[in-house]
Amino acid sequence: YNGEVVRGTKVLKTSGLAGAVIVPVNPGDDIAALVADAVAHGKPVVTLLFKGGGTYDIGSLTLPAGLSSISFTGDHEVSGTTALPATLNISEVRLTDLIFGKVIFEKVKLIGGTGDFLINLADDNTQIESYSFDNCIIKDYRCVVRIQKKLIKLKQIKIDNSILENTGGYGVVNVGGASVTLDSIKITNNTM
């Protein structure tokens, strides 16, 4: 503003999910237990906040029942070109519930094993709104999102402003069979 005159506007987007409870995660924490505690306290929408520069050895993660949406969000250690993301050594993320909202990964480095599927949907009657990867480094996966030959409905897979390294075998996204319904795949501004 210059007095009463508007001089410009800027739209800002915060990280995580709107209305989510923010759960800070420390290396060594039991993430499934942290999420289960939030759900038990009536908070089914969770943003997990990982400290930039930290390394988290997660392995295989099964998210508890009652969760409706989740974001794996990193904050950078410092700003600028020397910023370090949180590193998540994570082989896979599984959902317990068959009906789910959003799964978001943002500003994190995801490292698997070359035989790992980060997301592997393999249950009939699964309905998911979206999987999103924003500003991530994704490394060493056989496939990032695999949807097997089951009755599965998924609205969107989005990978934006990310770097994918040593990911293949089954491709970045693998959709199998005519019984899968996938509305859109958006892959924009990435380095592969």
Secondary-structure element string: EHEEEEEEEEEEEEEE
pLDDT averaged residue by residue: 92
Q: Tally of extended strands?
A: 15
Oligomer: single chain
Structural class by sheet pairing and helices: mainly beta
Radius of gyration based on Cα positions: 17 Å
Overview of the molecule:
By secondary structure, the chain is mostly beta strands. The protein is built from one helix and 15 strands, in the order E-H-E-E-E-E-E-E-E-E-E-E-E-E-E-E. The chain has a seven-stranded parallel beta sheet with strand order 1-2-4-6-9-12-15, with helices on one face. A five-stranded parallel beta sheet has the order 3-5-7-10-13. The protein has a three-stranded parallel beta sheet with strand order 8-11-14, with no helix packed on it. Strand 1, helix 1 and strand 2 form a beta-alpha-beta unit. It starts with 20 loop residues before the first strand and ends with a strand. The mean pLDDT is 92.
Features:
mainly beta; 192 residues; single chain; seven-stranded parallel sheet
Short description:
The chain is mainly beta.
Present the secondary structure layout.
Blueprint: E1 21-25, H1 31-40, E2 45-51, E3 55-63, E4 69-75, E5 86-95, E6 99-106, E7 108-111, E8 117-121, E9 126-134, E10 137-139, E11 143-147, E12 152-160, E13 163-165, E14 173-175, E15 180-188
Parallel strand pairs: 1-2, 2-4, 3-5, 4-6, 5-7, 6-9, 7-10, 8-11, 9-12, 10-13, 11-14, 12-15
